[in-house]
Amino acid sequence: MPKTPHKTTLPPTTPRGQRLESSPCTWDKKLANYASQYVSEKLIGDCNLEHSGGPYGENLAAGGATDFDGADAVKMWVSEKPYYNYDSNSCVGGECGHYTQVV
Known about the structure:
The protein is mainly alpha-helical and 103 residues long. The protein has three helices and two strands, in the order ααββα. A two-stranded antiparallel ribbon has the order 1-2.
């Protein structure tokens, strides 16, 4: 059975920046409901990768390999880490927007 976005899970640990200090993550029910609604609309729609245009940022990914999954998407986004400047909290050349969403 091919993997679908809603049936894909991430590995138990996701890559994190070594120099980052942050509070523990907490579940945001409002955000979860927003994401669920967006996915539901896309699954009955055209499934094109389009940002929601809403109040939240989101990372989108697609791969040509039949075994491309959520973990592969995260690896792609984390590969932008070299373009992130920790001291200024900014992206070099605007090339790390996906990475900032991961961390």
